Amino acid sequence: MKKYLVISCCLMVLLFGTAISASAITYTDTQNPNLWLTGTGTFSWTHPVTSDFQIPSDTLNSATLTIGAWSVSDSNDRVYVEGRYAGNLENGVWYLLGYSSTAVDIGNVFTSWNSGAPLDVSLAYNEGRWGSLFLASSTLTIDYNNGTASVPEPGTLLLMGLGLVGVGALRRRFKM
Fold first, then answer.
1. How does 41-78 read in b/e, with b if 16+ C-beta sit within 10 Å?
2. First vs last Cα of the chain: how many Å apart?
3. pLDDT averaged over consecutive 10-residue blocks of the chain (176 residues)?
4. What is the assigned CATH class of domain 23-147?
5. Which letter does DSSP use for residue 147 in this model?
6. Contacts of 149 (CB under 8 A, 6+ apart)
7. Domain ranges for the chain
8. Which of 80, 129, 148, 156 is most buried (CB neighbours < 10 A)?
9. How many whole angstroms separate alpha carbon 48 and alpha carbon 172?
């Protein structure tokens, strides 16, 4: 009887231990405007966000917006996300074969963002009278833990502990 109780307990722990798993998810969206911007102005675009990413139930590990451009100069081009200042484009190159990308940490934007809504991005550019900027790409990367999943460590530790108890019981049984 004792043997069947131990076996059924081990099977229950195995069942619950494998059912619990963490789900770190990385979502990436890339927009390719491929657009020359001249003079002074603002260009806006949106990044759709996956519908299963919900604030506050999900835990945001990191959020990065990477903007690729040619002919970036003087760091006077400002990036805004959801209407909030995110950073400047870094100095780039002045020839068409070069490529510069600026990665901006935008994790703080998601504290006030509406879950499921697209993320609004805008670039306030100031290229002067004769300058121009080529906006090549914009990539949004979100790394988050889904709030509906549990962390697997308790189940794993319980399985390991029960396995050690079982090995100890078998050793004790064969010693007698």
1. eeeeeebebeeebebeebebeebebebbbbbbbeebbb
2. 19
3. 62 56 81 92 93 81 89 82 88 56 86 81 87 89 76 66 77 73
4. mainly beta
5. T
6. 20, 21, 22, 23
7. 1-20+154-176, 23-147
8. 80
9. 60
The phi and psi torsions of 81 (rounded to 5 degrees) equal -125, 125
- Selection from 75, 76, 28, 77 nearest residue 49 by Cα: 28
From the list 137, 79, 150, 83, the residue with the least C-alpha distance to 114 is 83
Q: Could you report the per-residue pLDDT of 54-66, keeping only the tens digit for each? A: 877 788 889 999 9
Residue among 59, 60, 77 at smallest CA distance from 68: 77
Residue 81: the pLDDT is: 92
Cα distance between residue 159 and residue 13, in whole Å: 6
